[in-house]
Design brief:
single chain; 930 residues; 30-stranded mixed sheet; 5-stranded mixed sheet; globular
Length: 930
């Protein structure tokens, strides 16, 4: 109840603040009029972020991401309206406002003389539009247009994001999967489609996997590093808003055909894309349709190592793995956008996007087990991972899908603007017939390992042949997994200008309701005791020649073949359910109700202010299963029952912008945001295995992480195209969630299982923390040096972050005197650099990206903490564009030229935990714009 009183107090404050302004207007609302329209250039390209000023009352607006603007609550009369945009000649038009009417006034701008001289096209044109949007925003925003994405060799949205200041990405199979913003964990960043958060297809995170969405399906990427009160509050790192292709102002038709190559798979790739848009019925109906298809055979070469403390403070090798992956990735994406204008004051729209990624994976793994134990306990296991021989192509199929359907409307009731939207989203992950066949041999290997605690430990003993040795079946399993998350959302927003044309500001308020349901259902069965010896006749030689971690590993080892594994008819066999996997199933329901109020005010010709307040109420209901395994290996599961949790967060925000002049901006802000716990962390289960002495414990008492964000930035925009900027930020985090790991006991475990030496994992609100950072960015062509260099440009960003932790609340981890625990997911240095050449249709770009190492996961002690190693990426792409009526672009890309591996290390930099190589990739093709 106290939260309700706080909310009412804030609403009353805003009401009293604006009461005098409302009184002055009185009944004038009914007599006032509105002007709205779309701003384009002479080639009919929309101009987002254009400044539209009513000169006589010194107030105005900026056009949205699709070039639309609205001037509302203007008293009847004739006004001079000035429209300006970077690189275009400002235009002043006269408009006549009529009582209670909405006037539609579309405006076309012409390029300025300066830009005619330097021939702004291609990347420069997209860069100009992106910079104009950043310039006009109140908060700290980075914008990447579709034109800019097309000039980098980025196949998915995650790869495109790594070009933005303050963003680091984490990889899977050579592609960016999760984005980290300003030194925060990927779980702290919200990913939205047209402003609505997407559900996650993964079972253990709230974040969508960015490699689901092809880069060519997005019109604009907005990274909002500062959120306002009308945006969702779960965005500690920021909000990555993916703006889908919207209805155009004229007919467009684009097509892409391309191919590529990867040396691991030794197979060609296929890339296809098509976009069509137009307006019909006297421009009342707009349509945009787009499709993208990518088929990319690939793979990776991998080694992994696990270290433990032997109880005498010695870190020793426990397990070593050699892995060969073959992965074929297929991406499909389809989108549609429609809008219909009944009249200038009323419009409805519908948007839909569907994304699907199929990963067909075969993995051949050598595992040296229990290397820290006696010789008789040690073994080597050769495991084949695959699927059935139907649609799964004898490979493990992971199919992730997302749907998003969004219906909305924009209406004007005199001066009051009303926007509404309802949406349905769904994300799912299916792994049908995921199969593992492992064979094992008892044999000591620990004494044969070289370079232990180094970068590439390996055994110098040959793996014994399968024929003539006592190899036995270690595992034969077949599993089916289905994860889905459904989300319904509804929102209603009101915008009310105060005074003539909003000369006293603008009041925005509204509410939103989101209802989410997430389920995980896994069924896995073991068949090793009911299969015969036929497998010995179906072997294949794997671990390929050219294995990138080195030829010291067992090249050409025999494994059970994927074709034999895929041919097994498990319907004719009787298996035993693996309850450890079933114990990971859960059901979660989450309802979020939110409301906000926001007041925008131009304090003077040079300064603007936004004050906002948001309240979010979260109600959860979830259930799972507990796993019990006795000393004989007998397992059972019991339901946890249903538990509930609820909390309310109050999220104030203040944003200030000062315009030193038209090209120099200062911004300052304070906001409060949050990050909700993962569903899997909240499930109140206790799963343990007596034989392996491991336990996983859920924590239904987890609280959301909250953060006070302080930001200060300055930007200078060059008169041609480019900017230089510097920013400072500090994030004050509370109740940071960390998965704590320790060796010992836990009060949640039964007392009769000998629980003093278990490896236990449990999520916990472990500490409070702080992240201080600075961001630098510079982008400009070199024409300021001499006109001859105007075709060459440079783009560079650098971010420094420093994290600290305090107020420790670990259950078992002991923080030593002087020990400095860093925030997880915080690289100290992140940088991008790109030099490009563009002239006469030729575009060449060399791009470099780097990030320093950071702690990724806490171990049982500091010496066993897991770190994500530093990365250095170098990419090259070139294109040639020709033709006017039929603009044609021939392109070629080469990525990962440095063959940067994914690498984790444990405790010290030399102690490799995982290293995975992907090799370089090349692509080429043709794009046609009709």
């Amino acid at each position: 109840m106290k939260h309700v009183y706080k909310v009412l107090t804030v609403i009353l404050f805003y009401t009293s603040l604006c009461n005098g302004m409302f009184a002055e207007q009185g009944a004038d609302f009914k007599a006032n009029g509105t002007v709205k329209g779309r701003i384009t250039d002479s080639s009919k390209q929309t101009l987002p972020g254009a400044t539209v000023i009513v000169e006589s009352i010194h107030t105005g607006v900026t056009s949205d991401a699709n070039g639309y603007y609205t001037l509302s609550n203007l008293r009847p009369g004739i006004y001079d309206v000035k429209v300006s945009y970077v690189g275009y000649t400002p235009k002043v038009i006269k408009i006549k406002v009529i009582n209670g009417k909405t006037l539609e006034e579309n405006i076309t701008l012409d390029e300025g003389a300066t830009l005619h001289e330097i021939n702004i096209t291609g990347a420069f044109s997209g860069q100009r539009r992106a910079l104009q949007q950043q310039k006009s925003k109140m908060g700290i925003v980075n914008v990447v247009s579709a034109d800019q994405v097309g000039k980098f060799p980025d196949s998915n949205i995650g790869d495109a994001l790594k070009r933005i200041s303050g963003v680091n990405v984490q990889y899977d199979q050579g592609e960016a999967r999760y984005g980290q913003v300003r030194g925060t964990s990927a779980d702290y960043t919200s990913v939205t489609i047209d402003g609505d958060r997407l559900p996650s297809a993964s079972g253990d995170t709230r974040n969508i996997q960015l490699d689901l969405i092809p880069a060519d399906m997005i019109q604009t990427i907005e990274l909002n590093k500062v959120v306002t009160s009308d945006m969702d509050g779960d965005a500690i790192g920021g909000e990555i808003n993916l703006i889908t292709k919207s209805t155009p102002s004229h007919r467009i038709l684009n097509a892409t055909v391309g191919s590529g190559y990867n040396w691991i798979s030794d197979k060609p790739q296929l890339n296809l894309g098509l976009t069509y848009g137009n307006r019909f019925f006297n421009n009342k109906l707009g349509i945009m349709l787009a499709a993208s298809y990518q088929y990319a055979p690939g793979g990776s070469d991998n080694t992994e190592f696990t270290y433990v403390n032997d109880g005498k403070n010695n870190i020793i090798l426990n397990k070593a793995e050699v892995r060969q992956y073959y992965v074929t990735r297929e991406r499909q994406s389809y989108s549609a956008a429609f809008d219909y204008k009944f009249n200038p004051a009323n419009k409805i729209w519908f948007k839909a996007i569907y994304n699907k990624r199929n990963d067909w994976e075969n993995r051949y793994r050598i595992t040296y087990k229990k290397l820290d134990s006696s010789d008789k306990k040690q073994s080597v296991v050769l495991q084949t991972k695959g699927g059935d021989n139907g649609d799964d192509k004898n490979a493990r199929l992971e199919r992730q899908q997302t749907y998003d359907f969004n219906l909305g409307g924009e209406h004007e009731l005199n001066a009051l603007a009303i926007n509404w939207g309802v949406s349905y989203s769904r994300a799912s992950e299916d792994k049908p017939n995921e199969r593992y066949f492992g064979i094992s041999l008892k044999s000591p290997f620990s004494s044969s390992f070289q370079d232990v605690s180094g970068r590439q430990p390996y055994s110098n003993i040959k793996i014994p042949d399968i024929e003539g040795n006592n190899w036995t079946i270690d595992e034969l399993t077949n599993s089916n997994r289905h994860i889905y998350e459904n989300e319904w959302k509804g929102k209603l927003d009101f915008t009310l200008p105060i005074g003539n044309g909003g000369e006293y500001g603008k009041l925005k308020f509204g509410g939103k309701f989101a209802s989410k349901v997430k389920d995980r259902d896994t069924k896995n069965y073991e068949y090793k005791d009911v299969i015969g010896d036929e497998w010995k006749n179906h072997l294949t030689s794997e671990i390929r020649n050219g294995f990138m971690p080195g030829d010291q590993y067992p090249i050409g080892t025999d494994f059970v073949s994927k074709k034999y594994l895929g041919s097994i008819d498990f319907n004719k066999l009787t298996g035993t359910e693996v309850l450890e996997d079933a114990a990971g199933n859960y059901h979660a329901n989450e309802n979020i109700k939110s409301g906000y109020i926001r007041y925008d005010r131009q304090l003077s010709k040079k300064s603007d202010l936004i004050v906002g307040f948001r309240v979010e109420n979260t109600n959860l209901k979830y259930s799972g299963f507990n796993l019990i395994a006795d000393n004989d290996g007998n397992q059972s599961i019991t339901a946890t029952g249903s538990l509930k949790n609820h909390y309310t967060n109050l999220l104030p925000s203040v944003l200030y912008k000062y315009n030193i002049d038209d090209n120099c901006k200062l911004r300052a802000s304070f906001t409060k945001t949050l990050a909700r716990p993962k569903y899997t962390d909240l499930i109140p289960n206790v799963n343990y295995n007596v034989q392996d002495a491991t336990a996983e414990i859920g924590n239904e008492k987890l609280r959301p992480t909250t953060c006070n964000n302080f930001d200060l930035s300055s930007e200078y925009y060059f008169k041609s195209v480019g900017l230089v900027s510097v920013g400072l930020f500090y994030k004050d985090l509370h109740n940071v969630i960390v998965t704590e790991k320790w060796v010992g006991s836990a009060k949640e475990l039964p007392s009769n299982i000998g629980n003093n030496d278990y490896v236990i994992e449990k999520p916990n609100n472990a500490y409070d923390g702080g992240i201080f950072g600075t961001e630098l960015a510079y982008e400009r062509d070199f024409g300021f040096i001499t006109p001859a260099l105007k075709c060459i440009g440079f783009y560079g960003t650098y971010t420094y972050t420093h994290s600290t932790t305090r107020n420790y609340n670990f259950e078992h981890r002991v923080v030593a005197n002087g020990e400095k625990i860093k925030m997880q997911g915080t690289p100290e240095h992140t940088a991008n650099a790109s030099i490009y050449f563009e002239k006469s249709g030729v575009n060449i770009r060399l791009s470099y990206n780097t990030a320093s190492s950071f702690i990724d996961e806490m171990g049982t002690e500091a010496a066993l903490d897991r770190y994500y190693d530093h990365v250095n990426y170098l990419d090259l792409n070139a294109s040639f564009t020709f033709g006017k009526k039929f603009k044609t672009t021939i392109y070629a890309d080469a990525t990962n030229l440095l063959n940067q591996p994914l690498r984790y290390y444990q405790g010290t930099k030399e102690r490799t935990m995982q290293v995975e190589y992907y090799g370089a990739r090349i692509n080429c093709g043709i794009k046609i714009n009709l």
